[in-house]
Design brief:
Elements lengths: L11 E2 L4 E4 L5 H8 L2 H4 L13 H10 L5 E7 L10 E8 L3 E8 L8 H12 L6 E7 L3 H9 L3 E10 L4 E11 L2
Parallel strand pairs: 5-6
Antiparallel strand pairs: 1-2, 2-3, 3-4, 4-5, 6-8, 7-8
Amino acid sequence: MGLDAIHDQPIVATDRFDLRPVRLSDMGLLDFYAGDERVARMTTSIPHPYPPGASEAFVNRAMAPDRDEDIWIMDGAKDGRSELMGVIALERMDRNQSEVGYWVAPPFWNTGLASEAVRALVEANPMRNATMFASVFQDNPASARVLVNCGFEYIGDAEAFSVARNAKVPTWTYLLKLT
């Protein structure tokens, strides 16, 4: 393993791709895809326009030993696809819970990639969580379908601030009990 590998975060394999820890070499594709306004607007934390240094800060945070979330890259290289097709993360919460967050790069939309990534992470349950939460913006029904297809149940409406939109956006919140 290279110096840019995270040693305590497992690789989660699927048939089409691997969920692997973030590495320094991901910065170029992160700049490219996270800089796409369509991606940024469906997240809470990606700014648009995407500023210089944002991918470097993201990678450094993802690789930090004291991080509060584990972040995986959807890497299709083993099947001849892109090394970065999207990102999925588990943010640690109290009481043996985590929150799932993900985005998929536009060339891979409508391919089942998000569902496969969420399902693989739920099945691996690397944090040994009892419960996982997720929320999606209400104007992103495709992400809501991903969660429902992976066994998450709708539990209510809320709102979250979107950096790219510079506004609070209505969300749907979902829960999955694992134990």
